[in-house]
Design brief:
Strand order of the largest sheet: 1-2
Shape: globular
Radius of gyration: 26 Å
Largest sheet: 2 strands, antiparallel
Distance between the termini: 49 Å
Order of helices and strands: HHHHHHHHHEEH
Helix content: 40-55%
Number of helices: 10
Structural class: mainly alpha
Length: 300
Amino acid sequence: MQAVRGLYADGSFYLLYTLHNDDFFHVNPTRYFAEIVTQLPVVVAMHSGVSDTAMLIRLHSVGLVVIPLGLWVGALMAQWRRPMLWALVAMFAVTQLNSGFMAIGEYNLAYALVVLSAALLLRARALRWWQLVVLVTTAVLATLSYEALVYLGPVLIALAVARLMGVRGIGAARSWAERAALILLCVVYTAATAVAAWSIRDPRVPEQGPRGRRPVDAADPRPTANHLDGDRGARRRPAPAYRTVAHAGRLRHRGVLGRAASPRRMGRTVAAFQGPHAHRTRLGRPAHRRRGRPSHRRPS
């Protein structure tokens, strides 16, 4: 069952796109590093000549499930037989065992990177050179991992500053290399927080933010429900078809159509959206000028 866990939800489409293009599949630029890390086993296997689909599915699940779990195991080992161990176990139960059912989510890797960094920063002993390398690597990967760094980044900054200042209960920096690494970590964590905040404020995938919805112009015979700003109008998804002016008013009330597409303004153009059978409907003239209630019959 775990071998195909990566196919759940969007995981199957990610794998299909990767197999079709023989390259990484990037959806959001602000999650670039997380997508590379989780898709790396599949891409490396394909470039190595592996063509067995079952094996590629397993490797796809390895990148999505095993890599975050490995980071969690490293965090638990860093605090083994220490007071923070059970706190990390509780974090693992709340995050990985709760939201980790959707393995394709980049947040799984982001949470694991943050927990491993925090576990190393909370060690009472001096950090060794390989631990500093792990800290810097995880910090760089976290900069383009997930928007959760907007509130997890300040926590890591506080831990790095506390270790740099030698706060009681947290191991103090004892060498110049460790101090330099902690200063670099503060800078990288700040950048990760800024990138996450910028991604929330101005998402690169417009459907995830308030700029993804474009009001429908009544004069435009091809209204769209969502306008992809990144493509500058090159791709448009057609708006839901409506049968009558009253139907258009209900869609506008639910937010599917923009407020510019009021029933009265759409009266002159609603016939243009009926397709090739517009001449068979009762929309020969503006609906707001007809007597009686608008008909809800579908075009024959």
